[in-house]
Amino acid sequence: MPNVLVINAGSSSIKYQLIDPLAEHRLASGVIERIGEDRGALRHRSGDDEIERALRIADHRAGFAALTEAFADAGLPLDRLDVAVVGHRVVQGGSEFLAPTLVDDTVAARIAALSELAPLHNPGHHQAIVAARAAFPGVPHVAVFDTAFHQSMPESAYTYAIDTATARAHGVRRYGFHGISHEVVSRRAARLLGRPVRELRQVVLHLGNGASVCAVDRGRSIDTSMGMTPLEGLVMGTRSGDIDPGALLHLSRAGIDADALDELLNKRSGLLGLAGSNDMRDVRAAALGGDPAARLALSVYVRRIRHYLGAYLLELGGADAVVFTAGVGENNAWLRGEVCAELGWFGIEIDPSRNDDPADGARIISSDDSRVAVLVVPTDEEAEIARQSWALVSAPR
Ligand code: ADP
User: Fold this and answer.
1) Do residues 87 and 216 both lie within one domain?
2) What is the pLDDT of residue 395?
């Protein structure tokens, strides 16, 4: 059986999973943290076995050596596991990467060059790709991009109305993110409904710490709420989502410089900025206890989701399914109820007992009379990276 080693790396961490793409089965997973610091850590799990060790990991290359050693120590050495391909998650693929791509030196250099658009993500991806290609030289490496699924957006959806020459010179346009999640969730939603994805219009709500909405028209993204960066759109754990660009000019003239604005909007806003915690469970508990700031935070959060849901129902010309996924979407029945409240006019009606059922697989939560199916579908970005990577290298040429 061929297996895919899926890598999701940052500048100081490597998360990995070994997945059988045909059975959609996870054989092992782990995380290496604090690369480059004095006190690094590795956690590796396969089956019921777990290895935890504290060790100094100088760089990504040392990280892959530690990973290989962990597999061997767990009794499943990688050279006996038929690793057929290494699949790398890459956040920013710009306008040029439309699909999963076989990594060669040129592709690796392009991913590094796109760091300009994703300074927090692409440098770490590039370091990991270089190290992984050295560690596993005998197998193909595939880059799977978070932006690629949204490359099907029409020009009118990805264009910001600013001076065209300035926008072009600086790559200022909407790219959209969470594409790997929106793609796997919309495919699995179709599977649950027993219909081909190419027949369905879906609004997918990915509500985790990061959050975005996607209008998926017959399997293709036609609009999404994140933009040039993962900051636009919904209220998130610590990110503001939509804000008048004039407010940023105002703050900048008041002496808050670009780095401080970056920190404010990415790390001190969203639920955290409004209610003091980025964890939806805390905010909900505080609201139930009567905390006015938490109540306001939840109202703003829900209103923004409904704003996009309404817009995408119009863009799609109606919908066959509304799909909730990620930490909040999968687990918070109250929030799902609020988002879908009084939408009978649109043919959207939740069944309260189905919604409250704490099951954890993919499930339908709408009433039998609801014209639009409302679903909860767990996301699995690693399985999708494995599927796409394997599909690329196993396709007949
Ligand atoms: P990330 O974007 O970091 O992957 P997740 O998808 O894990 O984030 O989502 C994190 C959010 O999901 C947090 O706000 C957390 O409160 C919420 N969440 C996770 N599990 C539950 C749960 N069992 N009940 C309610 N909310 C949950």
Assistant:
1) no
2) 86
Active site residue 79: no
Region 334-340 average pLDDT = 98
Which CATH number do you get for residue 128?
A: 3.30.420.40
Mean pLDDT, residues 228-251 taken together = 97
The count of structural domains within the chain is 2
Q: What is the mean pLDDT of residues 249-260?
A: 97
Q: Report the mean per-residue pLDDT for the chain.
A: 96
| pTM of the complete model beyond 0.90 | yes
Kindly compute the dihedral angle of the four CA atoms of residues 353, 343, 364, 371, in this order, to the nearest 10 degrees: 120
Q: What is the dihedral of CA 292, 296, 299, 303, to 10 degrees?
A: 170
Which residue in the block uniquely carries the two structure tokens 């799609």? 316
Q: Which of 212, 267, 328, 356 to mutate to test the pocket of ligand 1 (most atoms within 8 A of CB)?
A: 328
Q: Which two tokens stand for residue 144?
A: 């799977």
- Measured from the CB, is residue 281 less than 6 Å from ligand 1? yes
> Are 279 and 354 in the same domain?
yes
Give percent of the chain above pLDDT 70: 100
Do 140 and 204 lie in one domain? The reply is no
Whether residue 181 is contained in a domain is answered as no
- Structural domain span for residue 127: 3-145
Tell me how far apart the terminal alpha carbons of the chain are, to the nearest angstrom. Answer: 21
State the DSSP H helix or E strand holding residue 180, giving kind and residue range, or none if neither.
helix 179-193
Task: Please write the tens of the pLDDT for every residue from 343-381.
Answer: 999 999 999 999 999 888 999 999 999 999 999 999 999
Q: Given the CA of residue 283, which atom of ligand 1 is nearest to it? A: 16
Residue among 109, 184, 101 at smallest CA distance from 143: 101
- Which residues are documented as binding site for ATP? 15, 206-210, 279-281, 327-331
Residue nearest to atom 24 of ligand 1 (CA): 331
The reported pLDDT for the residue numbered 378 is 97
